[in-house]
């Protein structure tokens, strides 16, 4: 018997569902076929080519940041190839067992070439994009391929340059690929125990690649609910989820202050909306005009997403169409919620880094696919199709013999969702591309600096080494891992570029100390305990940041000693300890060479 792609990824054809040519197909058929085909090729080709161009232009084979832990894993493998302790060890809040296996493979085949790691991540992203499109297309066969080009534009956006150009983020692309694989299997018309086991294995891979992978379990359960799968399937899925989660958190040490998200509900809600809304690559520094616009945009996306999820639950008896759209939305919202719990204390800037946008974009992709579903539903209804004609997945047909009318949602909902998605696609092109390119240039500059420091590491002080190669590791650890990389010819040390960077010598300007307050902004009224956030940059490495206040009897009084987090230097100011009135806040940064830099002052009002 011949095996077709539909047998593997799609659904068994149903002889009852013979779909006539739909309105969207006819709208494309009005074009010259050569033009339609050309537009389709261009629509898919440009985002794919652009993504690989970005990777080729700005990537560098150098170890920077988190990958020093990869060097540690590789080093353990020289003693014992599969050292369970290092492979299973936590990385922050994450179990990255399967990415660690890939790292070992790269170490023994490519001398741990970081660029190869990045291309593997790109391949997984491309595969995930193709699977998402296939999952929807298999139930909407008459929808032209041209209509799926925005999915590629969104999923391959430059705004995720922090993942594209950072080999360590292979873990998240592996999560994405495993999650999408599990979801499209669960979205099949017919799911046997064999397919359920396959989906479960994919979910386990996602779970043990990063903390975010655990969200595949509630998302998969939602999909089982939408499809009215047998209770035995749901019980098996829940049992696997519980077992996987228990193993994940065994001997787990958390460094996240999850209680702060509960203690500050308003701030948490704001953070959540910013995380969802910043899908166009604008770095948010606080509640200024840009920040408020991003927050409101996130609010609109969340409201429309809830609308889609509610409609999916309401129409779950009509199981003939793909449910991949609500599943993607569900996973993206889970991710944003997790981000809120873990990083809310960092303030709005904590929701903005580009590496979080890969999963945030899934929400928008889900909305777009929902638009295609609703438009197809409306078009077929407007043409007077009978329920029996609404087939092929374009209009959901009940497994139990009922049908679902398009209703007012299909019109008003499609208009609202369409407006939101069209706006995001346009903003991706108009804002996301230049913002992504700017971010990629900064990433590349940091990588070049890291390469120059790495090959001359013995000539730089500890603070410079730490600031240039890995701000979150001790200099002694970085130096030890750098020596291991050199001895075993890993990454940069396996290339001819070492001599080139040595010839360039030391960094010409070793001190570029600067600091800026990002929270609060000018004119804000403060009361109670206020989070203060500042950025501080220096080639030698920033050693300390303080916040000072002047006004109402105070003169450059230290009101907070900051702690460095991933998204800035953060302190808490108990404003009740000072008189009410007007104050000028400054951040003061210190570096390893003994230099001091002051930020521009920010005027605030304390009113307790």
Q: Give the overall average pLDDT.
A: 84
Report the helical percentage.
40-55%
DSSP strand content: 5-15%
What's the number of extended β-strand segments?
12
Number of separate helices: 22
Q: What oligomeric arrangement do these chains adopt? A: single chain
Q: Which of globular, elongated, flat, extended, rod-shaped describes the shape?
A: globular
Task: Tell me briefly what this model is.
The protein has 22 helices and 12 strands. With 608 residues, the protein is an alpha+beta fold.
Layout of secondary structure:
Elements: H1 5-8, H2 23-29, H3 33-58, H4 67-79, H5 84-88, E1 90-91, E2 94-95, H6 97-110, H7 114-137, H8 149-155, H9 161-164, H10 170-186, H11 193-207, H12 216-226, H13 231-249, H14 259-263, H15 265-277, H16 289-314, H17 324-343, H18 357-382, H19 409-455, H20 462-469, H21 475-487, H22 497-504, E3 514-519, E4 525-526, E5 529-537, E6 542-551, E7 554-561, E8 563-565, E9 568-574, E10 581-591, E11 596-598, E12 602-606
Parallel strand pairs: 4-12
Antiparallel strand pairs: 1-2, 3-5, 5-9, 6-7, 6-10, 8-9, 10-11, 10-12
Helix pairs in contact: 3-7, 3-8, 4-6, 4-21, 7-10, 8-18, 10-11, 10-12, 11-13, 12-13, 12-17, 15-16, 15-17, 16-17, 16-18, 16-19, 17-18, 18-19, 19-20, 20-21
């Amino acid at each position: 018997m011949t095996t077709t792609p539909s047998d593997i990824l799609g659904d068994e054809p149903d002889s009852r569902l013979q779909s006539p040519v739909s309105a969207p197909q006819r709208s494309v058929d009005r074009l010259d076929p050569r033009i339609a085909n050309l537009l389709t090729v261009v629509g898919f080709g440009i985002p794919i080519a652009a993504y690989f161009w970005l990777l080729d232009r700005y990537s560098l084979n150098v170890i920077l940041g988190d990958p020093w832990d990869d060097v540690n894993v590789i080093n353990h493998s020289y003693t014992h190839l599969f050292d369970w302790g290092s492979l299973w060890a936590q990385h922050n809040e994450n179990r990255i067992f399967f990415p660690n296996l890939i790292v070992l493979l790269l170490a023994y085949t490519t001398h741990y070439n970081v660029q190869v790691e990045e291309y593997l991540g790109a391949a997984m992203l491309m595969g995930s994009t193709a699977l998402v499109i296939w999952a929807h297309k298999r139930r909407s066969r008459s929808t032209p391929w041209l209509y799926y080009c925005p999915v590629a534009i969104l999923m391959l956006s430059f705004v995720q340059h922090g993942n594209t150009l950072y080999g360590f983020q292979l873990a998240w692309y592996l999560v994405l690929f495993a999650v999408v694989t599990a979801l499209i299997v669960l979205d099949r018309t017919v799911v046997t125990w064999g397919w359920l086991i396959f989906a479960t294995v994919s979910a386990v891979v996602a779970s043990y690649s990063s903390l975010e992978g655990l969200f595949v379990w509630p998302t998969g359960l939602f999909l089982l609910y939408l499809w009215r799968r047998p209770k035995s399937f749901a019980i098996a899925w829940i049992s696997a989820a519980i077992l996987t989660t228990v193993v994940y958190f065994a001997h787990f040490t958390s460094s996240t202050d999850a209680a702060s998200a509960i203690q500050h509900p308003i701030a948490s809600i704001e953070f959540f909306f910013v995380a969802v809304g910043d899908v166009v690559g604008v770095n948010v520094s606080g509640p200024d005009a840009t920040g408020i616009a991003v927050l409101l945009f996130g609010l609109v996306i969340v409201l429309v997403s809830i609308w889609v999820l509610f409609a999916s639950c309401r129409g779950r008896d009509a199981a003939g169409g793909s449910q991949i759209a609500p599943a993607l939305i569900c996973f993206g919202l889970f991710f944003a919620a997790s981000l809120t719990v873990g990083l809310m204390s960092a303030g709005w800037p904590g929701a903005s880094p580009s590496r979080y946008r890969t999963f945030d974009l899934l929400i928008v992709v889900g909305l777009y696919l929902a638009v295609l579903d609703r438009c197809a539903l409306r078009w077929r209804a407007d043409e007077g199709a009978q329920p029996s004609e609404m087939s092929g997945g374009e209009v959901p047909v009940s497994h139990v013999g009922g049908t679902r009318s398009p209703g007012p949602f299909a019109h008003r909902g499609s208009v609202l969702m369409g407006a939101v998605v069209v706006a995001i696609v346009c903003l991706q092109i108009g804002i996301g591309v230049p913002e992504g390119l700017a971010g990629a240039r900064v990433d590349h500059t940091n990588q070049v600096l890291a390469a120059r420091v790495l090959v001359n590491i013995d000539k730089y002080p500890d603070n410079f080494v730490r600031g240039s190669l890995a701000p979150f590791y001790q200099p002694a650890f970085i130096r030890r891992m750098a020596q291991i990389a050199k001895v075993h010819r890993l990454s940069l040390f396996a290339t001819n570029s070492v001599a080139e960077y040595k010839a360039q010598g030391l960094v010409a300007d070793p001190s570029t100390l600067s600091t800026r307050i990002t929270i609060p902004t000018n004119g804000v009224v403060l009361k109670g305990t206020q989070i203060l956030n500042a950025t501080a940059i220096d080639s030698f490495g920033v050693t300390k940041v303080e916040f000072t206040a002047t006004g109402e009897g105070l003169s450059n009084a230290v009101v907070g000693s900051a702690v460095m987090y991933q998204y800035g230097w953060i302190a808490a100011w108990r404003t009740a300890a000072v008189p009410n009135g007007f104050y000028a806040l400054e951040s003061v940064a210190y570096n390893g060479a003994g230099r001091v830099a002051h930020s521009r002052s920010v005027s605030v009002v304390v009113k307790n």
